């Protein structure tokens, strides 16, 4: 499989105006978004609570592009079927969230969705070795999960390089997504990522959503 060209942009609705969620999703889609990223937080795996199944369902009704659901929850295996049924195209859980990561990957696939595995900034990349061949997505956290609007962790650039080498060796079809602190400035430090998740820099800057997506893509392209 070839890499997405140009890079895919996945606006994170965590930073959207929730009083106008449908409108903001449509605007992101019309503004060139390739996926809609939905951050699900349970107050246990991460110290914050965000949104769940009904919100994914509601977004599914307005979005025509795939939904990229990022589960930051413990025991994700309990909810995989619910999130797939709600409309998740990519369904990603965290390495530390379950003792049965391989089973969860298989289950997501059986349910008809594309499995993803997320790595925290301190999670060794070696965790991926056995799972990579079965994944459609590897999500590299470039901040600690739990909140939008945080600062990009600079060491992520080197980790991304190493992750790319691992991916190229074990499963070239697997997409690499970076998530957290991606802005028009930091996007130059994630060269080689296939998908850029961006919340604050898509929904919270003064320019339009369309303009923000365009700027991210243009600045990323400068990385060659
Ligand atoms: O998963 C997460 C945070 O845990 C992210 O998806 C954030 O929602 C991205 O927000 P910004 O850092 O782009 O504001
Ligand atoms: Fe996320």
Automatic annotation (TrEMBL):
<comment type="pathway">
    <text>Carbohydrate degradation.</text>
</comment>
<feature type="binding site">
    <location>
        <begin position="146"/>
        <end position="149"/>
    </location>
    <ligand>
        <name>substrate</name>
    </ligand>
</feature>
<dbReference type="InterPro" id="IPR000056">
    <property type="entry name" value="Ribul_P_3_epim-like"/>
</dbReference>
<dbReference type="GO" id="GO:0004750">
    <property type="term" value="F:D-ribulose-phosphate 3-epimerase activity"/>
</dbReference>
<keyword id="KW-0413">Isomerase</keyword>
<keyword id="KW-0170">Cobalt</keyword>
<dbReference type="GO" id="GO:0006098">
    <property type="term" value="P:pentose-phosphate shunt"/>
</dbReference>
<feature type="binding site">
    <location>
        <position position="37"/>
    </location>
    <ligand>
        <name>a divalent metal cation</name>
    </ligand>
</feature>
<feature type="binding site">
    <location>
        <position position="12"/>
    </location>
    <ligand>
        <name>substrate</name>
    </ligand>
</feature>
<dbReference type="Pfam" id="PF00834">
    <property type="entry name" value="Ribul_P_3_epim"/>
</dbReference>
<protein>
    <recommendedName>
        <fullName>Ribulose-phosphate 3-epimerase</fullName>
        <ecNumber>5.1.3.1</ecNumber>
    </recommendedName>
</protein>
<keyword id="KW-0862">Zinc</keyword>
<dbReference type="GO" id="GO:0046872">
    <property type="term" value="F:metal ion binding"/>
</dbReference>
<dbReference type="GO" id="GO:0019323">
    <property type="term" value="P:pentose catabolic process"/>
</dbReference>
<feature type="binding site">
    <location>
        <position position="70"/>
    </location>
    <ligand>
        <name>substrate</name>
    </ligand>
</feature>
<dbReference type="InterPro" id="IPR026019">
    <property type="entry name" value="Ribul_P_3_epim"/>
</dbReference>
<feature type="binding site">
    <location>
        <position position="39"/>
    </location>
    <ligand>
        <name>a divalent metal cation</name>
    </ligand>
</feature>
<keyword id="KW-0119">Carbohydrate metabolism</keyword>
<feature type="binding site">
    <location>
        <position position="70"/>
    </location>
    <ligand>
        <name>a divalent metal cation</name>
    </ligand>
</feature>
<comment type="function">
    <text>Catalyzes the reversible epimerization of D-ribulose 5-phosphate to D-xylulose 5-phosphate.</text>
</comment>
<dbReference type="InterPro" id="IPR013785">
    <property type="entry name" value="Aldolase_TIM"/>
</dbReference>
<dbReference type="GO" id="GO:0005737">
    <property type="term" value="C:cytoplasm"/>
</dbReference>
<feature type="binding site">
    <location>
        <begin position="199"/>
        <end position="200"/>
    </location>
    <ligand>
        <name>substrate</name>
    </ligand>
</feature>
<feature type="binding site">
    <location>
        <begin position="179"/>
        <end position="181"/>
    </location>
    <ligand>
        <name>substrate</name>
    </ligand>
</feature>
<feature type="binding site">
    <location>
        <position position="179"/>
    </location>
    <ligand>
        <name>a divalent metal cation</name>
    </ligand>
</feature>
<comment type="similarity">
    <text>Belongs to the ribulose-phosphate 3-epimerase family.</text>
</comment>
<dbReference type="InterPro" id="IPR011060">
    <property type="entry name" value="RibuloseP-bd_barrel"/>
</dbReference>
<feature type="active site" description="Proton acceptor">
    <location>
        <position position="39"/>
    </location>
</feature>
<feature type="active site" description="Proton donor">
    <location>
        <position position="179"/>
    </location>
</feature>
<keyword id="KW-0464">Manganese</keyword>
<keyword id="KW-0479">Metal-binding</keyword>
<feature type="binding site">
    <location>
        <position position="181"/>
    </location>
    <ligand>
        <name>substrate</name>
    </ligand>
</feature>
């Amino acid at each position: 499989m070839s890499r997405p060209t140009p890079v895919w942009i996945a606006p994170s609705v965590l930073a959207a105006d929730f009083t106008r969620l449908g409108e903001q999703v449509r605007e992101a889609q019309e503004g060139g978004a390739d996926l809609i990223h939905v951050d699900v937080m349970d107050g246990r795996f991460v110290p914050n609570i965000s949104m769940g199944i009904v919100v994914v369902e509601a977004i599914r009704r307005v979005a025509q592009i795939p939904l990229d659901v990022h589960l930051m929850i413990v025991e994700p295996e309990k909810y995989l079927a619910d999130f797939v049924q709600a409309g998740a195209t990519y369904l990603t859980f965290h390495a530390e969230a379950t003792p049965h990561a391989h089973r969860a990957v298989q289950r997501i696939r059986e349910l008809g969705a594309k499995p993803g595995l997320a790595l925290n900034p301190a999670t060794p990349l070696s965790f991926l070795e056995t799972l990579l061949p079965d994944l459609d997505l590897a999500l590299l956290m470039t901040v600690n999960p739990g909140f939008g609007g945080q600062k990009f962790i600079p060491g992520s650039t080197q980790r991304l390089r190493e992750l790319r080498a691992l991916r190229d060796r074990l499963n070239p079809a697997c997409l690499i997504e970076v998530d957290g602190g991606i802005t028009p400035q930091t996007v130059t430090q994630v060269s080689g990522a296939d998908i850029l998740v961006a919340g604050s820099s898509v929904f919270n800057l003064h320019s339009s959503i369309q303009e923000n997506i365009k700027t991210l893509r243009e600045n990323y392209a400068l990385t060659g």
